[in-house]
C-alpha cells in the first residue's frame, strides 16, 4: 500500500497552492464524522460546485498521469489498484452533484449543470483516451502472469480493458477527437432534455376549482391535491401535478371524464408542446450523434454498440423476447377492454374506451370480477408500515438490521437515515438514506443511488445507499397511504438498495449494483415478490385506523386478482422498450411523431393504451446513455427474476433460509466480480428459462 501512496505524492504537491485557495470549499473536504465519514449536506452551496469540480478534475487527471507515466513495469498494484484508489475527491463531488441534479434542482443549479456537463464529458474522455494508461492496462490484460492473480483481480483487469476498448482506446487520434466532441455535445443535450422534462412536469398542472372537480377521489388523493395547490400558492381548491405519482391516481379514481382527459393530455405531451421545453429537436440530434459515434467505434448501430457489454449482446435477442410476450399481452388487453366497454355501455356512456378511461374502468372491472377495490386495499398500505416490512424481509433473507439515526446531516428535512448492520454478528454494513416525498426541484419516479461503494482495498469501507420516491404527503399528521403498484415499486427500489448493502467485494469498481444493465434490475424485481407474502401482509399491512391486518378474505381476493392488469402493464412497458430498440437500430434521421405512429401501427398497439414513456419524454433513454437501447432490460431481468423466484416456491417457500443464503452468496454479495450468466447459474444450477416469465404473467407458453 505504501508503494501506491507514493504514486500520488507528485500530484498532491502540484495542487498544494490551489488547495489553499479552495480550503474553504466544503465539497473539497473529506467526509468527516461517523461511519467512515458522511456527506456534509448542511455545509454545501450550489456556488461551491463549479470551483470544486474544476479543481477535482485537475487533481484526478494528475493522478492518472502519474499512473500512466510510471516508469516501472505495469503491475496490478501500480496500475489497476492505483486507478481504484484515484479520484476520491471527484467521486465524492459527483455524489453530491447527482443528488442536487435529481432532488434539489433549481435555476441556479441548472445553469451550472449546463456549463459543466460537456466539461465532465471531456474529462472522462481524457482518461478513456489516454494512450499510455491504456498501454499499461493492455499489457496486464495480455500478460501470462495475470492468470496467477485472484479471480476478482482478473475480472477487474478484464473490465478496465474492455471498457476502454469499447470507448475507443484503440482508435487513432483524429477519430478519438471526433468521439470526444460527440460525447461533449451529447452531454449538453442530455442535460437540456432533462431540464426541459423537469420544467414541463413542474410548470403544468390541472386546476381543481370546484368541489365537483374532486368527484370520486379518495380522501388521501383529494388531500394531496389540496396540499399541492397550497404549496404552489394557487388560488384554487386543489391541483393535480404533472407527475406520474399525481396523475395516475387521478386517472384511476376521478369520475370527471373531462378532467381525466385534461390530466392525461398534459402528462403524455410532456416535452412535446412546441414550446421552449419541446424535446423533439433535441432527441433527434441525440440519435444522430449516437449513430455517428457507433459508426466511429466500429458498430453498425448504436444498439449494437450499447449491447456489446450487456448479457443480451445481440439486439435481435431482445426483440425476440419482447415480441414473444407482446402478442399474448395484446390479446389480454383486448379481453380486458371488452369487459370495460360492457360497463360503459351498461352505464349509458356513448363513447369508446380511450386511454384516459383505461385505469378508471379497469378498477370497475377489478371490483366486479374479483370483488377487489383498490381503495379498500389502500387503507392497509401505510408507507411507514411497509418500510418496516421491507426491513423485516431484509432481516429474514440477509440478516440485516436497521436502526434510525439522527447524527448525520441530510440535504432536505424529508430525508431520514438508518444504520444497517448484521443482526447476527453486529457488524456495521452501511447507511440507508430515505427520501420518500415529491417536491419542486425533484425529478419524478423512484430510484436508488449509491453515495459510496463498499470496498476493502482502502480499508473496510462501508457503503452508503439511498432510495428516493415521489409519494404525495397529503394532510399533516396523517399516514401516507399508497397503492399496491406503488408498494411494489417501494420494494423494487429497496431491492436495488439491498444489492448495494449486501456487497462484499474488494474493489469499488466491482461493488454492488455495478453489473450489466440488463442484470441490475433482476435483484430489485425479485424483491417485489415478498410484498405479497402472508408474513408481510399479516405483520405490516395494517389498517391505518384500526391497526388490524389485512383480512384473510381480502388477501385471497388480492391473490385471485394477482394477474389482473398484467396485459396493460406489459403492453405499456414493452411498447416503450420496442420503440427504444428500434430507434437505436435505425441509421436514418427520424421524425419522432411519424416514427412513433408507424412503429406502433405495425405492432398493432391497442388504441386504448399509450406507451409508458412517449419519445419526447423518455428520460430513461435521452437523459443519458444509461438505458438507451436498454429499456428492454426490465423485461430481460424479469425473465431471470421469475425463474429465480421459482427456486423459492420449489423449495420451502419465500423464506427458505438455504435458498436465501445461496441468493446472497451468488447474487447479492458478488457485484461484478463474476460474469453475470455464471453468477446466475451458480444460484440456480442452470441458465434461466423464460417459461417462468410466461407463467408469472399468466400468458400461454408456446411449445
Explain this structure.
This protein has 703 residues and is α+β, with helices and mostly antiparallel strands. It has 30 helices and seven strands. The protein has helices at residues 2-7, 9-14, 16-21, 49-68, 76-85, 88-103, 107-128, 131-142, 151-166, 173-203, 219-232, 244-253, 257-268, 280-296, 302-306, 315-346, 355-370, 374-378, 383-398, 484-501, 517-527, 534-540, 552-560, 566-583, 592-602, 619-622, 633-650, 657-668, 676-684, 691-696; strands spanning 205-208, 238-241, 400-405, 416-422, 428-437, 447-452, 463-471. The protein has a five-stranded mixed beta sheet with strand order 3-4-5-7-6, sandwiched between helices. Helix 28 (657-668) packs antiparallel against helix 29 (676-684). The radius of gyration is 26 Å and the shape is globular. The protein starts with a helix and ends in a 7-residue tail after the last helix. Keywords: Hydrolase, Metal-binding, Metalloprotease, Protease, Signal, Zinc. Residues 251-698 form the Peptidase M3A/M3B catalytic domain. Belongs to the peptidase M3 family. Residues 1-19 form the signal peptide. One of its GO terms (molecular function) is metalloendopeptidase activity.
